[in-house]
Design a protein that fits this description.
The complex is a heterodimer of chains A (about 290) and B (about 425).
Chain A lengths: L12 E3 L10 H6 L1 H16 L8 H20 L9 H23 L1 H4 L1 H4 L8 H29 L15 H22 L5 H15 L12 H7 L4 H13 L6 H26 L2 H4 L1
Helix pairs in contact in A: 2-7, 3-4, 4-7, 4-8, 4-11, 8-11, 8-12
Chain B lengths: L2 E13 L5 H15 L11 E2 L10 E13 L3 E6 L5 H8 L7 E6 L3 E4 L12 H11 L4 H15 L14 H13 L5 E5 L7 H18 L2 E5 L3 H7 L2 E6 L2 E7 H11 L6 H4 L6 E2 L4 E8 L12 E9 L6 E8 L6 E4 L3 E2 L10 E8 L7 E11 L11 E11 L24 E2 L1
Parallel strand pairs in B: 2-3, 4-8, 4-9, 6-7, 7-8
Antiparallel strand pairs in B: 1-3, 1-5, 9-10, 11-19, 12-13, 13-17, 14-15, 14-16, 14-18, 17-20, 18-19
The chains are: A mainly alpha (about 290), B alpha+beta (about 425).
């Protein structure tokens, strides 16, 4: 037992069975920033190899959705759009939701879809969900560009009711919150589903419900008061309403609900990273 | 010399069987025990990992109390049968999975090559994949840029470098992947049988490169292989694993001797002669007994090797012939053969056992395991393996233990086939 004073400082790597819950090696992830960059590049390039239009396909999907929504919900069902033109109203919500949804889907399959690489080589596992969220950012920016085109078109109309305001400065925060919630939530699901796949089934259903509980196809102002409290628990709603408000002046923006989402994002991200850290060491044995 | 890797009491437990509601019950029990501050009820359970015996417990120790050290500049060979725990050990060392108990301490960056071309994306070009694979293995971008030309030259695929790798032949793919790996600058390299791929020329190049890495640059290499001639050539020390336990460690020569002793086919050849997979033929003539150097464990290649075999005849056969060849250590292609030998001029008597003997000179062979192919058939059928009377396909092998310099490869393709001075006679 006299060796207990043995100096561990000389070793640069120590592998032990114990998992430290509060071990988040940000420095290590920073060391691997080249890998994050190259993963992002791979994800983007690989999808559009051998296509002629390339990234323009990113624009097409949401456009179809938006015209369908306009036709279905505005023209047929006569749902309110806060007085905004249909395409502008629906495109904002759809763009943000698509970003959230694909970040979540990517993060929640981190372990199962990367099992091949994870089983052969070590790098901080968080690199995968992080690069995935970043590569979705490119998709988002292309769709944002589409949105801006519509926005400018409606803005320059002579009878325009659109009033952009200072909240536009909050757009980066909105994107950060959506990415953060999606990743935090996704890596928790990913960690839990390495061993038991049951949760995967549930998550699909849950995401569909969440989409309907988010004001994408309807404005918050249209929700009957009795459901309002319940639906305001959804951290995604304030983001979409703020986004709408920022560009058009129509929508529901309060500092309280905005801060609620930010706090929610930080909490779920921290929680997610802890759970993820605990799983990453041994997931290869159970996946 | 300083210690760069220190492995202490390393163990790894695995659960067998399927994951389902039963596993969930066990997990719940474990969690409940932990909540009450008790010990994990399954921690002590677990059996020795012998895959051929059906055990009573669902838990096995894939590794149990492994201790060893690696010095700077060492090339450590890890040998053992399939399922001995070699890959598990490498996985723990490369941080792919965590051990159940014990610790590993290391100095310097560890790079693991458990597979060549990890993360290669088929749609990306060779050049893009160099960056991708390099980054996965932990190389910095500027390191890759600096070595890019060298990597492309090493792989020898300049022409295809801007073509997506899905258009590559499997050989080109492997060359590119290994070229990236060979240019890693990590202090510790972990390599799992990646040399089993690629053509002979490229394998030689890789082995040469690995030798350079350890001798020239003072880096340490851990190398797993079933190829004893590669282990012999590359490693200066080795460990032998069996059923998850470290059975022996020491100089490569001694460990190979240990390995051959444990895995010798000669001593158990009599049982294997009835192996249905390794043996085929219509059985009109059969090998009854075969012995090589009277069943001795090791063969000294400086002396002639003595083969004795006896056959039993069940039918009148004219032009009964015998053929024998020796395969390379990888068992992929024959290095030399006896040529077709007609056993007797007249048909042999039915029901009698006839004994034959021959000697060959094996001085071209270096340390290693050389499978032997024995054939009995009719003259003229020797190139068709369809209806031989009896074939023993790699049932036996020559365990050569040679003190000749490692530098020379075990065999020489440039030498003509055919044993030199085969001395064949009937007893």
């Amino acid at each position: 037992m006299g060796k207990s004073n043995e100096n561990n400082a000389e070793w640069s790597t120590i592998i032990t069975p114990k998992v430290n819950w509060f071990h988040l090696n940000i420095r290590e992830i920073w060391e691997y920033r080249d890998l994050i960059r190259i993963f992002v590049r791979r994800d983007i390039v690989a999808i559009y190899k051998q296509t002629v239009l390339g990234p323009f396909w990113f624009m097409l999907g949401p456009l179809f959705t938006v015209f369908t929504y306009t036709f279905l919900f505005k023209e047929i069902a006569h749902l309110s759009t806060d007085g905004l033109p249909g395409p502008l109203f629906y495109l904002g919500g759809t763009t943000l939701w698509n970003y959230f949804n694909s970040c979540f889907n990517g993060a929640s399959s981190t372990f199962s879809s990367n099992a091949g690489i994870f089983g052969k080589v070590y790098f901080p596992r968080l690199v995968s969900p992080i690069s995935m969220v970043l590569s979705n950012l490119l998709k988002l920016s292309i769709q944002m560009f589409t949105y801006l085109c519509f926005f400018i078109y409606y803005l320059v109309q002579p009878d325009s009711i659109i009033e952009p305001n200072w909240c536009i400065l909050l757009i980066p925060v909105i994107i950060l919150v959506l990415g953060g919630v999606a990743m935090g939530f996704g890596i928790i699901i990913s960690s839990f589903t390495t061993k038991y796949r049951d949760l995967n089934m549930l998550v699909g259903v849950f995401m569909t419900l969440l989409m309907y509980a988010t004001p994408i196809m309807y404005p918050v102002s249209d929700i009957p008061p009795m459901y309002k409290t319940f639906l305001s628990l959804n951290p995604i709603s304030p983001m979409i309403e703020t986004f709408r408000y920022a560009f058009t002046g129509r929508g529901y923006f309060t500092v309280t609900s905005f801060m609620y989402s930010v706090v929610f994002m930080v909490t779920i991200l921290v929680l997610g990273i802890f759970v993820f850290n605990k799983t990453e060491k041994t997931f290869m044995d159970t996946v | 010399m300083s210690t760069v890797i220190k492995v202490e009491n390393l163990s790894k437990q695995y659960r067998l069987g399927l994951v389902g509601s039963g596993t969930f019950k066990e997990d719940a029990k474990k969690w409940w025990a932990k909540m009450r501050g008790k010990e994990n009820p399954y921690a002590l359970e677990g059996e020795e990992n012998n895959r051929s015996i059906k055990g009573g417990s669902d838990y096995v120790w894939s590794l149990k109390d492994i201790n060893f050290e690696v010095q700077q500049g060492d090339v450590l060979g890890i040998v053992g049968r399939n399922g001995a725990g070699k890959s598990t050990l490498l996985k723990i060392l490369s941080k792919v999975t965590a051990p159940t108990t014990g610790t590993v301490k290391a100095k310097g960056r560890i790079a693991s090559l458990l597979e060549v071309g990890t993360g290669f994306h088929p749609e990306l070009t060779g050049r893009e994949n160099i960056f991708l694979n390099g980054a996965i293995l932990g190389m910095k971008r500027h390191e890759i840029i600096r070595k890019l030309d060298e990597i492309i030259a090493f792989a020898g695929i300049e022409r295809y470098i801007d073509t997506p790798v899905k258009r590559y032949s499997s050989g080109m793919y492997v060359r590119l992947a290994f070229a990236v790996a060979a240019h890693l600058e990590n202090e510790i390299l972990i390599i799992d049988e990646v040399l089993a791929v690629g053509d002979a020329e490229f394998q030689k190049k890789c082995i040469g490169k690995m030798g350079e890495v350890s001798q020239g640059e003072g880096r340490s290499v851990l190398f797993v292989s079933h190829n004893m001639s590669a282990i012999n050539k590359l490693c200066n020390t080795a460990i032998y694993l069996e059923n998850g336990m470290l059975e022996n460690s020491g100089k490569t020569y001694d460990i190979i001797k240990h390995y051959n002793k444990k895995n010798s086919y000669i001593s158990s050849g009599i049982d294997l002669i009835n192996d249905r997979i390794l043996r085929r033929g219509n059985g009109e003539v059969r090998f009854v007994e075969v012995s090589i150097n009277n069943g001795s464990e090791f063969i000294d290649p400086n002396l002639p090797i003595l083969f004795n075999f006896s056959i039993e005849v069940f039918n009148f056969i004219e032009d009964l012939c015998f053929f024998c060849s020796i395969y390379n250590a990888e068992g992929t292609e024959p290095i030399t053969d006896s040529g077709l030998i007609q056993l007797t001029d007249n048909p042999l008597d039915i029901g009698y056992t006839n004994k034959f003997t021959f000697q060959i000179n094996s001085s071209i062979l270096r340390t290693g395991h050389y499978p032997v192919y024995l054939w009995l058939g009719k003259k003229g059928d020797e190139f068709e393996d369809d209806y031989p009377f009896d074939v023993l396909d790699k049932v036996y092998s020559l365990n050569i233990l040679s003190d000749l310099p490692k530098k020379i490869l075990g065999y020489d393709y440039s030498k003509p086939g055919g044993f030199f001075n085969i001395n064949f006679k009937q007893l």
